[in-house]
Amino acid sequence: MPASVKTGAFYLFIAAIVTFAVFPFYYAIITSFKTGTAIFDISYLPTSFGLENYLSVLKSGGKALTWDDVFHFNISGFPLNFVNSVIISTLVVCLALLIAVTASFALSRVRFRGRGLLMMTILSVSMFPQVAVLPGLFEIIRALGLFNKMPALIFSYTIFTLPFTVWVLTTFMRDLPVEIEEAAIVDGASPWTIITRIFLPLLWPALVTTGLLAFIAAWNEFLYALTFTLDNAHRTVPVAISQLTGASDHEIPWGPIMAASVIVTLPLIVLVLIFQRKIIAGLTAGGVKG
Amino acid sequence: MSEIELRNLRKSFGSVDVIKGVDMTIHHGEFMVFVGPSGCGKSTLLRLIAGLEDITSGDMLFDGKVVNKVTPKDRGIAMVFQSYALYPHMTVYENMAFGMQLSGNGKDAIDKRIHEASDMLQITPYLKRLPKQLSGGQRQRVAIGRAIVRDPKVFLFDEPLSNLDAALRVATRLEIARLHERMHETTMIYVTHDQVEAMTLADRICVLRDGLVEQIGTPLELYERPQSLFVAGFIGSPKMNFLDGKYAADYRATTIGVRAEHLEIGAPDKGWPGKVVHTENLGADSYVYADLGTAEPVIVRQNGTTRFDNGKAVGIIPTAALVHRFGPDGRPAAA
Q1: Less CB within 10 Å around the terminal CB: N or C of chain A?
Q2: Which candidate from A183, A189, A202 shows the least CB-CB separation from B89?
Q3: How far apart are CA B250 and CA B319, in angstroms?
Q4: Smallest CA–CA separation between B308 and chain A, in Å?
Q5: What ipTM was assigned to the predicted interfaces of this complex?
Q6: pLDDT of residue B261
Q7: A123-175, pLDDT tens digit by residue?
């Protein structure tokens, strides 16, 4: 086979994979700019451009959202769901990282009985399907009086993020040289000082990577968000999108749904772009010993 | 003031006994070197003194006070690690300042001490750099500087030269020796597997073997009066020649040991008959390997350069007064 055919086939293969991966997003974006019946015409190129879908999604309390409303936090509807999502996901990341960093310090650095068993338990817990834990978790949430409140979601997302974050950070922390920690002990550092002033700066790429993945998981979560909330004011964006209604009960408002999906994806893209370099460093740093 | 005393010190990791009862006194201002083959427990012993490992049983005393449960920072020690163990994300200055900051020293005090130490070690031009921008020798000097800044009563070195190349090792060895002269109030303990480092640096050497002290003494004591076959073989380069069987029987011993410089080469009918198998000429001196029909050839040191054809029959003549005699237990035989 001539080299040119080989190269051509290779690029064709790449093109197929890229199309497969990117097309759904592309289609969502062009659909979000279509209005009326244009939505139901199947076309693969942008045919019309209108912001009506975006404006309808961003309506707060039946009227268009203004900057004034934002500053006075006088918002409702989808913008409020968006704010809920930001608050919940951010708090989940902070809480999960705080617990995971301290836990992984113990798991990687302190010798204690049953450490291996604990690690395996953490790994196996993370394999449970969400729905298996749902009834039990629901009882706990109700007993704690958190039902239909934001802490319910923060609590349950943190629980589900922790096995993963603890596992990853423990692997990273294990690779940090013991001598550095011992040098800090000789210098008179307490475990907390070692974690915050020595380990955290060195674990920064790992923290960004796991933190971002935790954020994405919390941001996209649907099942708990649906189960543990009752009214629209407490919902997060995935549920809010699924509950968007059209003019009548039987109409599925594809346009606004697509617009909302695009809006919801934007923060993730921005975060990934900001931390891009760190993520790449983080994904490779743990794998190979320098 | 800091005199360190170990009393029947033991350390076990699980069921493995690493230190099996060590008694020792390290005097104030002394440079003590722990030397021994790998796995003899010398690093563990240093870490016990540092407080990085818990003592299983026995007592450790600093200036007469039991410090078994005292944390490293309260023992007044500083340690230089084999792998430097600098904080990779801090500059040289921050590395050196870290310990003093934690003990709550003022900025000016820290600054003054860091500049004293960095001038002494000639690392002042690198204070703003990160460890990864330094060479191995510079990193080790920074690690030593970080330890000096803490103004320790006891200075611990854990094989600090083993990551350096040969030329740098000699230079840094000299620097450590000079450091000891300048900080003569500070007790220094140095771990190495290299007997040359031990011989050149130590006031006293402690030879460890399998978790027990084999012999403690000045370098020359160990060289001239080894108290066991093990010490005799471990100290000195080239290795002491050991002979047994009829050679030892002539001296009423089970094994005899003769250093290479205490052997002479003569005519084949003198001394022990043998054949030259190899010659190493090092310029100032040379080593002749002669086969006496024993397990290993004996090594004879000659001044200047020599030339012997391989296979040449020679006689090896020991200086009788300098032959070390050992009994069946590996200890010096009674006269």
Answers
A1: C
A2: A202
A3: 14
A4: 50
A5: 0.84
A6: 92
A7: 888 888 888 889 999 999 999 998 988 899 999 999 889 998 999 899 889 88
Alpha-carbon gap, residue A111 to B111, rounded angstroms: 38
Q: Does domain B4-233 have CATH number 3.40.50.300?
A: yes
In order of their start, the domains of chain A are 3-50 (no CATH), 70-285 (1.10.3720.10)
Instruction: Report the half-sphere exposure of A278 (CA within 13 A, side-chain side).
Output: 18
Q: At B49, list the tokens.
A: 């003194």
- Residue B335's pLDDT band, with cuts at 50, 70 and 90, is low
What is the residue type of A232? N
Cβ pair B52:A189 closer than 8 A: no
Place of tokens 């084949």: B268
pLDDT band, residue A286 (cuts 50/70/90): very low
Task: Select from A177, A185, A188 the Cβ nearest to the Cβ of B52.
Answer: A185
Spell out which residues of chain B touch residue A189, defining contact as CB-CB under 8 Å: 98, 102
Domain ranges across chain B: 4-233, 238-326
- Distance CA(A193)–CA(A145), nearest Å, equals 36
- Angle at Cα B229 formed by Cα B223 and Cα B231, nearest 5°? 40
Angle at B302 between CA B300 and CA B307, to 5 degrees: 95
Give the pLDDT score at B267.
87
Q: Is A50 exposed, middle or buried (0-12, 13-18, 19+ CB in 10 A)?
A: middle
Give the 3-state secondary structure of A195-259. Answer: HHHHHHHHHHHHHHHHHHHHHHHHHHCCHHHHHCCCCHHHCCHHHHHHCCCCCCCCCCCHHHHHH
Q: How do residues B23-38 score in pLDDT, each as one tens digit?
A: 999 999 999 999 999 8
Query: Which of the 8 DSSP states describes residue B35?
Result: E
Cα separation values, B142 from A115, B119, B132, B160, Å: 36, 11, 12, 12
Task: Determine the topology of domain B238-326 in CATH.
Answer: OB fold (Dihydrolipoamide Acetyltransferase, E2P) (2.40.50)
At what angle are helices A130-143 and A150-175 packed, to 10 degrees? 120
State which residue of chain B sits closest to A184, comparing Cα positions. B99
Using the beta-carbon criterion (under 8 Å), do A186 and B89 form an inter-chain contact?
Answer: no
Segment A6-20, tens digit of pLDDT: 999 999 999 999 999
Chain A residues lying within 8 Å of B79, measured CB to CB:
182-183, 186
Q: Is the dihedral of CA B251, B256, B260, B262 positive or negative?
A: negative
A192-231 tens-digit pLDDT: 999 999 999 888 888 888 999 899 999 999 999 999 988 8
Q: Is B78 on the interface with A (CB under 8 A)?
A: yes
CA-nearest residue of chain A to B87? Answer: A180
pLDDT-derived band at A289 (thresholds 50, 70, 90) equals very low
Residue B87 with chain A: CB contacts under 8 Å: 180, 183-184, 198
Whose structure tokens read 């410089």?
B261
Q: Which residue of A has its CA nearest to B77?
A: A186
Give the pair of three-digit tokens for residue B234: 């471990």
